[in-house]
Amino acid sequence: MQDLKWIKLDISMFEDEKIKLIEQMPEADTVLIIWVKLLAQAGKTNANGYIYLNENIPYTDEMLATIFDRPVNTVRLALKALREFGMIHIDEDSFIHISNWEKHQNVEGMERIRQQNKLRKQKQREREKAKQIEQKSKNVTSRDSHEPEEEQEKESRKKKEDKEQQRTSEIIQFWDENGFGLNNIQGKNQLLSWLDDSSFKHPEKIIIKAMEIACANNKRQLNYIEGILRNWENQSLLTLEDIKNSNKKHKKQTVANDGYNYGF
Description:
Blueprint: H1 17-22, H2 28-45, E1 50-54, E2 57-58, H3 61-68, H4 72-84, E3 88-90, E4 96-98, H5 101-104, H6 107-140, H7 147-177, H8 185-192, H9 203-216, H10 222-234, H11 240-258
């Protein structure tokens, strides 16, 4: 849910002397497009300005030509020019790095998103590992000698299923009863995906809280709810208590700034 969606571009970038020199080169427009594509790719990789397929595989000229939909010779020309102007650095292992990336980008925000994605992947691995252990236990357990254990497992699974059903039913019921779209099945499923694919401690409570805010502001749309959820994740507000404390802090700051409480 928290893939990086933007990078910063300086509005005076075309006044930079390096850019002006590039504009005098053959295929200048294409070189500049490749420069912007490299910046966007660095944001997508979200590794402090490095660009790579994964941590062990750097991009080759041919791979970048495919990704950027440009001739490989044009890509090589652009990389050569950008490297000579010091706008990129290519290390001895062929990994490309955008120079001064930390100077121009919101590195703290990018790091927060990276850590949240890491936490979600860790939770996913833990769920998969638990399933593997459960499956392995079934394979090695004798049906005749462990019938009580099998019954306990069934009961445990049923409790988990009932709990999961309760989590989803509360959200769906709130959705249906508060005008978010009774027949919008796709919207419901997308919202329910936050139950497993988020960093919240009790996601079902957080989701309903976001829906309550959407109702209060008469914004009964999925993108509005998800915007609230993304903002809370970006601010590391992962429990109802975190959100409540943040609201109190916001109100105090508002009163201190203009002497009037506008609410939150």
